[in-house]
Design brief:
151 residues; mainly alpha; 2 helices; 90% helix; 0% strand
Length: 151
């Protein structure tokens, strides 16, 4: 019976630790990641549908139009470089998030190990107290049985 309760107790502790880790990962770490992910899609769709942000170009068949085409190609190059910078920034953010997640998981693992050690110590303390109570009960039973034989 002792082994059964010990098994149930250790199973409850392990399941509580696992549930705590899963809750932490899902609600704290993944919440920020998913919020940023959803925002990126919302902004892209919104930008595609707005007509206010469009740049309209007038077409002129004279020489001034060719000069403006050269300016546009420079603008296109700048847009490409800014797109590259934006992609680089997104990649940096992703790597930073990944590093934060790994650091947090390492911290959680360390805390779980600490908690396991504390639980082991508590279990040992409870076992010692149970042995003391058991011995006290045995002593009382033997003294009580000794009194009943005398009577």
């Amino acid at each position: 019976m002792k082994k059964f309760f010990k098994f149930i107790f250790s199973l409850a502790i392990v399941s509580a630790i696992v549930a705590g880790v899963l809750y932490f990962v899902k609600n704290i770490l993944m919440k920020d990641y998913l919020d940023d992910y959803d925002d990126d899609f919302d902004n892209d769709l919104y930008d595609e549908n707005t007509d206010e942000d469009r740049d309209y170009v007038t077409i002129r068949p004279d020489a001034k139009a060719s000069d403006s085409d050269d300016d546009k190609s420079d603008d296109a190059k700048e847009d490409e470089s800014s797109d590259d910078k934006a992609e680089d920034e997104k990649e940096e953010k992703k790597t930073e998030r990944a590093e934060k997640v790994t650091e947090t998981l390492d911290e959680v693992k360390e805390k779980v190990d600490e908690i396991k050690e504390e639980v082991k110590e508590k279990v040992e303390d409870v076992k010692e107290k149970a042995e003391e109570v058991k011995n006290d009960v045995k002593d009382k039973i033997t003294t009580f049985s000794g009194y009943s034989k005398d009577a």
